[in-house]
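FW: tagging you since you asked about this chain on Friday. Here's the raw sequence from the shared folder, copied in full. Didn't touch anything.
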Amino acid sequence: MWVAGIVSGLLGIGSGLLKVMVLDVVMKLPMKVSTATSNFMIGVTAAASAGVYFARGDIRPLLAGPTALGVLLGAVIGTKIMERLKNRTLRYIFFPVLSIVAVEMFLKAL
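HL: got it, structure written out here
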């Protein structure tokens, strides 16, 4: 996870994809567990960061409010959809997303 954080910081990508991949491939967790664990880790990190950004005055409430509601709505809908999907189906969805991110990272490197 430390390496995922470094890579995401260097390349400007979210580390969630890398965390899911490590949890799934290296730790052999089911895809549903991997995605939920990754989301939890990101949520804890974001909550800690939000306090710092809020104290510095970097958060615009008119932008943050609707964004938070959208994230909440997306999380609820995503959870309902994920409950019905099989782990194999999630892998089939995850692979193209990971491939697109890999191509974007390669293009940024050029």
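FW: DSSP finds five helices and no strands in the chain.
HL: agreed, and Helices lie at 2-11, 16-26, 31-56, 61-84, 87-109.
FW: great, closing this out.
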